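S., here's the first fold you wanted:
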Amino acid sequence: MGVKNVLFLVGDYVEDYEVMVPFQAIQMIGHNVHAVCPDKTAGDSVRTAIHDFEGDQTYSEKPGHNFVLNANFDEIRPEDYDGLVIPGGRAPEYIRLNERVLQIVRHFFEHNKPVAAICHGAQVLVAAGVLEGRSCSAYPACGPDVTRAGGTYVDLPPDGVHVEGNLVSGPAWPANAAFTAEFLKLLGTRIEP
């Protein structure tokens, strides 16, 4: 299988389950996983938000955990990583304003490396200009963004996952199991009973 290096791009109010679950699961497999945030360094933390589906017209939001970063944003080199994960929540709406975040995302697409974006993570893909001619799932409220960026929005149930080429995408944290499994497959990770 070989140990892979995986990069997570996060920010304050990243969705709690969408960062915690894949981050820990990919570490559990034995891969090296680094989480970074613009303007923060290893040992700093980002606040998370818990988004839930309670019958309202949109998700509710509650305070989550503090998630500790384990690498320095300014020091990472995307060429050192085999895959990229972009969790959702509110973080994507502002980390996409950072030009280096967009350059990092473009690197993974230019080199056809595995990328996994869930929920609002698609906002970063849109800002990076990597969805034209591609299909992508996301939280339904991000569907128009995907379409306006020249992509095809794939509407899935909350636990669904979509794979196209090097991109794994899903609508929300209920998809974590399938989302993480498909990303690991793209990395070449084999899990045998």
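And the second, which I think is the more interesting of the pair:
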Amino acid sequence: MSSAEYGFFSRLLHRVALGSPAVLRATMQMEQNKWRKQPFDGQTAAPVFVSGLARSGSTLLLNRLTATGVFSTSTYRHMPFVLAPNMWSGATKSQQRQSDAVERAHGDGMTHSFDSEEAFEEVFWRAISDPKTTTKSAATLPWNAKIKAEDLAQFRLFMTSVIKAGSAPRYLSKNNNNITRIPTLLKSSKTAQIVIPFRNPVDFAGSTLSQHKRFLAGHADNPFDAKYMAWLGHHEFGPYFKPAGAPGVEPTDTVTPDYLCRYWSAVYTALLDVDSDRVHFFDYDAFCAAPKARLRALGKALSLDPAPSPPDGVHAPKEYDKSGISAEALDAAMKLHLTLQSRAI
């Protein structure tokens, strides 16, 4: 949600709650004290993590999986104290507002309301991370950083908090930054599964660049919105753009189609190297062509019965011009795309 949907005092509360790692950790500790003596039930929680590069259908997957009624996930009701969803929901229960669904800032037809599921899990990782890796000046997002055992234990408590605040037994998150920590997520639970959506690299580059320009323009006169995105760990585009630091990825001051195509190749090359039958690649373009069949395959992979149902009016993804991409980068990306398609569920 943008600042237009928040009043002055609400924005101030968000600044205090999300802008200070100390406040984040304090509220998280207060919440987690409730579950600290309860062992994490990984078999029941059976976490599913949706994570891929932006503009590849991850939000759509989050929505369709949540609609099954099987999963609990973070929602706008948990804002701004997203690390203490039960404590905050209880304190504000009598004052909670209702709202109609409105289109999100991306201008892509996806809508949200106060009850919508959203990508807030990254706030946890920001709370426990070295501040040097989460500031605007950090060049890239750390790739496969070592996570201490106590931090992993805290993450299990966070998942428990989200499940307790929800109404379903399994944990679900959509967090595109999770591509940088796939091994950690697999360690979080023996039942954890990862869904990695991808799309044609040319269309990824075109769509991401379009959003980058949109958010740069929108945030130029609205610093709160820019900070809000950074607090939530959304670095996919805009003034706080920060690429995932997969091997071969270089930071840049100028985002171009060629850079984004090379970035796509580096990230998905690294993700293909993950050796686990709990990692599932999901072809967004194939989904658009045959939504029921692709979601049926996803449901089988995630042990969902019945399978997720597609939304109404699925349409073909927009195609973008490849003229800004060098022949070398395009050739490498399209070969990799064929490999991903062969691996997709």
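Why I say that: The chain has a mean pLDDT of 89. The CA atoms of residues 215 and 261 lie 20 Å apart.

Talk tomorrow,
H.
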